[in-house]
Amino acid sequence: MRDKAFSTIETHRMFRQGDLVCAAVSGGADSVALLHFLYTNRQALGITLSACHLNHCLRGAEADRDEAFVRELCAGWGIPLTVERAEIAALARERRLSEETAGREARYALFERLHRQTGCKVATAHTLSDNIETVLFSMVRGTGLRGMCGIAPVRDYLCRPLIGITRQEVEDYCRQQGLDYVTDSTNADPHYTRNRLRLEVVPQLYVINPALPEAFSRLIEAMEEGYALVGAETGRFLAEHGTDGRVDTAAFLAAPGAVQREVLARLAGKWGAGLSARHTELCRELAAGSGAVEIGGGIRFLSRGGRLWFEREPVPARSWEIGTSLAELRRGPLPLPDGRVLHAAFSRCEYFEKIEKDFDGCLKNTLDCDRIYGKIVLRTRRGGETLRPPGRGVTKTLKALLQEAGIPPAGRGRLVLLTDEAGVLWAEGFGCDERAAALPGQGGETVTIWIEENPL
Questions:
Q1: With contact defined as beta carbons under 8 Å apart, do 329 and 344 qualify?
Q2: Which residues make Cβ contacts (< 8 Å) with residue 37, sequence separation at least 6?
Q3: pLDDT in tens, 62-97
Q4: Is the CA virtual torsion 266, 267, 273, 274 positive or negative?
Q5: In the beta sheet, which residues pair with residue 376?
Q6: CA 301 to CA 313: how far, in whole Å?
Q7: What is the per-residue pLDDT across 293-323, written as a single tens digit (0 to 9) for each?
Q8: Are 170 and 33 in contact (CB under 8 A)?
Q9: For strand 121-123 and strand 81-85, is the pairing parallel, antiparallel, or unpaired?
């Protein structure tokens, strides 16, 4: 095992002299072997070693036993250890994830924090056996070329020194070195997909081909070479046809399918999102026309105006309602719950000609105070409101007006309305309702309304 690990580290240039390396240790055979290898060869590798452990709090006393084991192991070897606890079951419920996925996210969040705080590289104990299971799992889900590459030996600050070593070789190493380790009882639970692959599928593949690890190593190597070619072509494509995260649709549709899939994966990846095979094909279909699709995690894909891109769904605006009065509006600017400010300027209809001359377009936002009925309220939309724009001769729903104006659904929640007991008086961006709009020659008092976006 030692020679294979050194070869993997050298081939992939995992470490440099002076690197800080943090080993992720669960207490199982793989991670104990990794920690021992790095500890006994730290001078030859030129690294400073530490370790980390995440207690998933899923197996009660057994999880606490694992934590205690790792603490004792690291203390005995004088290795600095970081331990964190995460309530994975609660996280899984909260985020609507499987416990496997929630646990993985929690582990990698810990790795990211440690890397950010210390600049360390994080070594995980993934083996060739893990890689075989990962490729099989990806195949079952319907993966693309990237998924067939399995677990990368190096990705950013993450490295896998044991990625070329089978689980049997790891266990042999532990036995030869006299290393104790703990066993996770859930590893025998066929409820978990990876366990079923390891316990039921992989043994059958060994029957078919006893040299399964070597065969998978060749397969993964070939897939990596193919993916490298697609990746290089994708890089050239994006340099020529991508600007600010947006891609020319015609060029995208003319590209080979493998490049299209990788372009989509990279664009989504910039938002921290992964694309399933189904979503990838939906995006490719939309690229040929126009539209949008949500891919999960608050991220959506859009194809419009000859461009395609991903973006985060805007957070829906919070609904609010505040009662007011003409007297209150007269006293000065009125702060709104969304951080903006509403202004009201009072005048008289006899000055209309001058107002219209000096302030083009403001009259559509000017109400006749005498035509306001009852109490007035400032609020956001509830749905079903209508407005009769002056001079158009029709009454329309605000939804229809928003659609005509091309305002996307996510941006409609901010719309501010001024209402009285008879309905909508004024709608932000659309002006007054005809029934209360100020008209020249009527001689009464008027109020002109506008909203300041970024008040000082």
A1: yes
A2: 1, 2, 5, 161, 162, 173
A3: 999 999 999 999 999 999 999 999 888 888 888 777
A4: negative
A5: 324
A6: 10
A7: 888 777 889 998 899 999 887 666 688 999 9
A8: yes
A9: unpaired
For residues 55 and 83, is the Cβ–Cβ distance under 8 A?
yes
Query: Which residues lie below 8 Å from residue 453, measured CB to CB, with a gap of 6+?
Result: 340
What DSSP element (H or E) covers 422? none
User: What's the whole-model pTM score?
Assistant: 0.63
Interatomic CA distance for residues 395 and 29, integer angstroms = 73
Distance CA 66, CA 380 (A): 54
Give Cα separations from 370 to 342, 364, 374, 444, 447 (angstroms): 21, 17, 11, 7, 10
User: What is the distance between the alpha carbons of residues 341 and 187, in angstroms, rounded to a whole number?
Assistant: 59
**Which pairing describes strands 121-123 and 158-159: parallel, antiparallel, or unpaired?**
parallel
Query: Could you say which DSSP state residue 359 is in?
Result: S
Q: Is 309 helix (H, G, I), strand (E, B) or coil?
A: strand
Distance (Å, rounded) from C-alpha 31 to C-alpha 117? 23
Backbone angles phi and psi of 301, in degrees to 5: -105, 140
Indicate left, alpha or beta for 57 from its phi (over 0: left) and psi (-120 to 50: alpha): left
251-278 pLDDT, tens digit per residue, is: 999 999 999 999 999 999 888 888 888 8
